[in-house]
Every structure is written in structure tokens, then in C-alpha cells.
Request: fold
Amino acid sequence: MITASNHESGNRFELLVQSVTDYAIFMLDPDGIVASWNTGARRFKGYEADEIIGQHFSRFYTAEEQAAGIPAIALLTALQEGRFEAEGWRIRKDGGRFWANVVIDPILAPDGQLLGFAKVTRDLTERRAAQEALRESEERFRLLVQSVTDYAIYMIDPFGTITSWNMGAQRFKGYDADEILGQNFARFYSEEDRLAGLPSRALHTAETDGRFEAEGWRIRKDGSRFWANVVIDPIRTPDGQLLGFAKITRDLTERRETQHALDEARDAIVQTQKMDAIGKLTGGVAHDFNNLLAVIVGSLDLARQRLASGGDISRYLDNAMTAADRGATLTQRMLAFARKQELKLQSVDCIALVQGMAELFRTTLGASVIIETRFPLAMPAAHADAAQLELALLNLAVNARDAMPNGGRITVEATEIVVAQDERPDLGAGTYIRLSMMDEGEGMDAATLERAREPFFTTKGVGKGTGLGLSMVHGFAQQCGGSLSLKSEPGAGTTVSLWLPVAWSEADALPIVQSGDTGIAGDRPLVILAADDDHLVLTNTAGMLEELGHTVFQASSGMDALRLLEQGRVDLIVTDHAMPGMTGAQLADRIEEKWPGLPVIVITGFAELPPHASRRPRLDKPFRQAELARIVATTMRASSMEADPVANIILRDC
Reply:
């Protein structure tokens, strides 16, 4: 019996079904005839209720499915199994297709009699299109990764098990996909790397840092090694869960071997250039010194012959001394080129220094050359050696004069310039004084300008230049912490610029006696011990000292000198620094320990001495007798002011 309440409930249910628009919900009778139709069915199937009620539901199926009896199979399955569900193409009223999810449930009376079927259909066309697009995208990506042959691109799970494999991995690792899938990627590492835990450390780094990259040796299937660049990135779900890792490996073996070969070739070229430079340097030195030795040997040989016959030998001795002086100058220029000369770095007023050289320029360059200066009203001091700077400027002025055979104008200019970091490859960041000397001479072409600073390269005639002028000035500037630059064009003259750092504080002066100093020894004759392993040098030094009125004992080594000192007191010791077994500096230390307070003088032909030796007075080689007398007198005078000396030490360094 149907009551009013049941009737109202049925009306509410019908209203509920009719209001659903995203699902087609309708009834079929036991033969499949449409008995009801809701709004959702009308929306995406296109039929009005009066058009479809009474029609068979098979019209929603494609012709192929109708021919295959799929509608009848669906109803039979629902009746037998209590439910039928499937997805497939369905047909709208206008003939268009849509992808549908279909559920058919049987409607049974309480006594089990079949009343019909409830059919619920959902339009999944958009979702299927999205899924299909995703599938196609994934397929394209899979094909892309699979087609890459220059990179091994594959996935591994969180534990390092390989889950995918592309053609690049197969090409240079040697494994087919069926051989390697399911294996741990650690097999690509060397035994030592596996023992060191590198594979697990790589995954841990990628997981914690978001990326791992490294280069190293990896192992192919055949056991051979290849040099690889490896990048590992973690793969995570949108909520951050780790799914695995993407691993990209590139074989860099060829590039590494090519780079190695290139480095070897570059080293070989550098070595060749070094040997070529050494050859030019030694050849130039040998040539110049052979010329000087030829003068010295020839002059002394002639002097000996004239002396035997009672003739005047002063001219030959003067020639020998002149050649020796030139040899000393050549040595100083070589030391400047090698950045090994001893510099007395201090604050130098460049304006005052150049102005003070006016008379020197006039007498050296001659009346055909005019010197002009362009200086600012004020300029900070430069950090340099004043004496060597004068020599450098004189060298540049002589070069400028020689470039103007018919005379001309030389301009000396100075300016303060701030150099930024990496602005110039030859200078660090800082403030510099740029001293420039400009001539109106012939200038240089690009090839000559390129070689201008090479040692022994000169454009002057034979015997008119050593070729060490510019290289010496360049070495001096670099030793001061600056540089030298050249600018020249044929017919437009040459500009040579010395870059010297600004002196912010006065440099400590070293007690150096230059070889140009003169003077005389004290009045008191001294007892001197001279030590040198070179017999000729020892004899020559002893002879100079004896001519000054001193008594000289000779020792051929440091140990020999200590033995003689044990036997008696002396006032002065002269010792070569570079002696085998015990250097002069070590000998001085031993003497200072046993006879403290003794003064020390250093005589050296080279700049580098141990720090503890450089604090002693010193005289540069080569030296004349007057210079030796001056340093002896100065040392003895300083010693007598401090204490009553027992001995005085002179270190000679060859």
C-alpha cells in the first residue's frame, strides 16, 4: 500500500535525480527501452526526454559495438553479476562521440522479479583527453631520452637500483637494458671508489643538497675505464616524497685526453721558449764578456812584454781597467734584468730627482738635444731606489738621443695614476707615479716594439749598444713593484713609461756601500784574516789589503779560518760567502757565538743573502782598492764606537 508519505518520498527522489547535471541517470525496462531521462542525460547526450523515452538505449553505442551485441551483453552481465561497468565511446544525438564511464545495475522487485535497469553514465572526455595528452607527453619524453646517445640518462630508485636505461647509457657503458635493469648503479664505480662509499655518498648528497655533480673514472661492462661527468638529481612527488634519482653521465675521455695533450704541447712550447731565451741570454753574455776579456787579456799580455823591456805600460793597464769597468756595468745590468740587484727602496721625489739630473743630461746627451719637463705642481713620492732610478732615466735618455741622430726634443713627464683591480695585467691595484720619456725620433715598427725589451736585442750598430738598456729598466721597475710600457710608431717617436708605486711610508734603508764610494782606511794597521775558496780571488784581495799596510793571513775554507782564529787574535776577517762546506754567513755566525760583538762587513756580487747576514755592512763586487779601504775604515770606526773590538768580519759573496 502506497501512502502519502511514500508518494512524497518518491517525488523528492525524482527531484534529486532530475537536478543532477554531471551524470546521465535514467531507467531502462527489462528489454533496454529508456523509461526515464534526467537533466544530466539531456546535457551531454543531447536528447530531450520526449525524444528518447521509449527508444532502445543501444543507440548510444557505436555501430561497431551494436554489431558486436555489446548493449545486450551489458544488460545480461548486470542481471547475472548484479553490476556492469565499462568505459568506451558513446554517441550523442548529433553523432559526436564522447568517452563515457557506464554503470548498469538491475532493479528487482521484492520477490526478485526484474523490473528494469538503472543506468548511470558520466562524460569523461576531458579527463581522457588530459590523460591521453599526458601519455603522449610521457611517450615523447621517453622517446627523447631513449634517442640521446651522447649522454647516459637513466633512473634509479632510492636505494640505487636502476629502473630505466637509454641508448646513450648502452653505447658507452656497454650494457643492454635487460642486462642492467634491476642492478645497482654502484657497479659503474671502481673498486676503490666503492670501498670508499662514493656511490652511497653521491645519493645522500643529491637527496640532502638537491644535486650532486662530480668527475671521475667509471667502469664499462668490459672492465675498461672512461672519464665521466656525473650529475644526480632527486625525483620527488608534489608532497616531497623521494621517488628516486635521475642520473646523467657524459663520457669525457676524449676531451680529457685532448686537454692533456694540449697541456703537454703547451708545456713543451714554454720549455722551448725558455731554452731559446736562455740561449739568447747566455750567447749575449758570452759574446760581450769575450769582447771584454779579449781587451783585458790582450792588454795585460802586452803590458807584461813591455814591462820586460822596461817600456811604459800605463796605456795597457788603463785599457784593462776600462774593460773591467764595462764588465762590472754589464753585470749590474744583468742583475737588473734578472730582478736580482740589491735595491735601496725609499721615498723618492721624482720631480726633484729629474730636475737634479739636468746637468747630467746636458753633458751626457750633448747640445743637439733639448730636455723639457712637464710636471704637476705637487705629486706624492715614488717607492724606488733613487740611484737606480737615475741610471734608468739616463739609459732611456741615451736611447732617445740615439733615436734622433740629428738632434731633437726629449720630454720628461710625470703624473699620478690610480690603477683599478685587473685594469692592467702587469700592475696590481694601487696608486702609481708614471714617469714618461718621449722623443721625436724614428720610432719603431710593431715587430721591433715586440722585441724591444728582450735582452741583447738592439737596433744600434755593432759595438754601439749592449741591448740591455730597456731590459735593465724593465727589471728595475718590476723589482720596485711597478712596470714599464712602450708606445711607438714609425716616424712618430717613442714614449717609454716607468710605472712606480706611490711610497706611503719611508722604506728601511739597508747598510749598503755602492761600488762608486771612495775613501781611505784608518790610520792603524790591522791584522786581517782573509778566507776564500778561490785562490785567485783570495790572492787579489790579500794583495789589496797588504798594499794598504795591513797584515793578512789567508784561509781556504770556513773551517780553516776557525782554526786560524783559535791560534791568535785578528782585527778583521774577509770571507767569501759561497764557500763549500761552510758559507761565509755560517762562518760569521760561528765567530759571533765564540767572539761576540765583532763587526761584520758583507762583500757580495749578488743580492740574495740570508736575512741574518744582510744586517751586516757590505760592499758590492767588483770593487777597487779605494772602495775596500773605505769600507774597512767605516767598519772599524763603527766598531770602536760600540766597544773595543777583538775582530772584524767582512763577508765576501761571489
